[in-house]
Every structure is written in C-alpha cells, then in structure tokens.
Amino acid sequence: MAKITLENLRHSYLPNPAAEDDYALKRIDHVWEDGGAYALLGPSGCGKSTLLNIISGLLAPSEGRILFDETDVTRLPPDRRNIAQVFQFPVIYDTMTVYDNLAFPLRNRGRSEDVVARRVTAIAEMLEVTAMLNTRASHLSPDNKQKISMGRGLVREDVNVVMFDEPLTVIDPHLKWKLRSKLKELHHRVRATMIYVTHDQTEALTFADQVVVMDLGVIVQIGTPVELFERPAHTFVGHFIGSPGMNVLPCEVRDGAAFFNGVQVPLEGRITGTGARTEIGIRPEFVSLAPGGLEGRVRKVADLGRHAVVEAMVGDTRVSAIVEGPVPAQGEVVSLAFRPDQTRLYADGWLATEAGR
Q1: Where in the numbering of this chain does the ABC transporter domain appear (predicted)?
Q2: How far apart, in Å, do the first and last CA atoms of the chain sit?
Q3: Domains by residue range for the chain, with CATH
Q4: What angle is formed at CA 345 by the lines to CA 340 and CA 348, rounded to 5 degrees?
Q5: Which value, in Å, is the radius of gyration of the alpha carbons in the chain?
Q6: Binning pLDDT at 50, 70 and 90, where does residue 190 land?
Q7: Single pTM value for the model
Q8: Higher-confidence residue: 173 or 337?
C-alpha cells in the first residue's frame, strides 16, 4: 500500500498545447493517504479516466509528477508500479476455475502454493465464493464474475493501490447495492488504498471516505459525502450531487446583500466575494412551504413515496422543494421559505459566503 501524491499534474492529448482549454487535465495537486478509500466522481469527459490511467502508468502526463510514498513513478511502466486494476468488464479466464483465477496473480509472481492457498482461501471467504472455487468461471453469473475480477485485484498483499474503473457498469441494478456493500466491507478488512472511478454519485458516496469531484479537467471539491452534500464548494457539485440537485438561482448583489426576483434573501453568513455571475444556492431539502417566503406558482408535483418534490416558478426561475405531508395542486400559489443557514451565494460558480457561526 502507498500514499499517492500528484504534483503539478497536467495532461493534454495535443502535441503542442497552447491554451488552458487544450488540456484534458488542468493543474492538479492532490494526495491520497495510505489505506484510504477514495472515489473519482464526475460526468463523462471530465478527466477522471485520464487521471486514473496516469496513476496506473498507462498514460504519461504532459507535466508534473506522481509519487508512490516518496518514490517518483512518473515514467515507470504499469508492471513496475505494483498496482491492481479492476475494469468495467470482468477480466477473468473463463476456462479456469474460480480458484485458479484468484491464484493467477500470485502464481504469475512466483509465490509458493502455500501462500497461494492461504490468500485465495481468505479472499474467497471475504467475497463469499468459497463454494464456487472449483467451478469454471464460464459458468458464473455476471455479478459473480465481477466478484472474481475484484478478488484478483485484492489477492496480492504487496500492491500499492487497487483501482476500480466503473466496475459495476455491466451489473444489474438490483445487484449493484450488494456488490458496493461487499467492496466497502473488503476495504475495511484489507485496508488497501483504493481509488474508485465512477459517474454514479450513489456508487461514489456509498463507497468512499473521500470523494474527488471533477469537471472539465479540474478538481472542484474534495470531501466526505456529508461535506459535499451540505456545503458544495461549487454550483457543479450542488447540481451533480443530490436528487434533485441544488437550486441555483440568479441573483443581484448590492450593499452586502443578495436579491432574488427583487427580494432580499438572507444568507448563511457574510459575502466573501463577487463576480461577473452571482447565484444563490440552496438544496430542495431546505426549501419549505411556509408563510413569509417568496411567492411562486406550482408547476409540477412528483410524488416519490416518502416525500414529494414540488416545482414552483418564481418569476421565470424554477425552484424545487422537498415536501413531506400534504402537497399543493398544480397552478396553486405557494410561499417558499429558504432556511438561512443553508442558503449560500456563489460567484462565478464558486462558494462566496462565510459559514455561519
């Protein structure tokens, strides 16, 4: 296992990048601590797979360095980085038994059969596939094949990092929760450094201790799932995490206050900056139907069982509220109250209010 340090990392697929937009990865400085569980989260094209390939050695960065502990591995090939990688599609040998598939990475490195037997037995127990050890892999279901692929990544005790590149893409939705839970359990037991790449916020938030949110080649926020939900550092994080995402409302700033649709909106704290574009951000969980708020007309109501999502128009802007109990009818005029300690200003996308004391 290893601490992974990224120093001044940039990458462009162009031979002679000249402008910032020429870079698929803009400047990144980040540290993954030894033994942590991390997720790289973002939409397709945000740079997360590029970053994973650079860490694994499949791609050399245009600029910067990658350190495993204190060793510079920037120019080392994958086979000298001592990593394990699990891909979208299970990488196993169908003609081999489950036992031989799990044993392959160890035998390939010349480990004794006593070591092979001990490690394969331990990993099989963790994955709950002991009863399948003598089964040919071709007879396994897709979720069990991916379990074996995960096991091949975990069976070695000497890896610096185990990387998962969207490993649940081909798994049926009703089995994804089970495999995510199993992977989280495995991390707690083996304490390997793990990096999980996904565009699915549920996968990232349920697996990782720390989530790295990326957009357009930039890390926009790093934090725990709770931190990303409760205090998005950027409007992109607010949009991308949560269902529905954060309300982002155009506003005007004057005399140290924010005004939406001509009405002053109390914020969590002092405004710390401004920009060409200013917006108010508040999650639907913190918008209520209560007197004294902004007047809006109900556009749509979605009943989700435990609660409903009410969409109302305030002027030309849509505002969503999560409501429990009775809901208004479509077309009804309602009062939308914002919880002040969860209402923030964003300037050019970035958080620009001080947290309340």
Answers
A1: 4-241
A2: 40
A3: 4-230 (3.40.50.300), 243-351 (2.40.50.140)
A4: 165
A5: 24
A6: confident
A7: 0.86
A8: 337
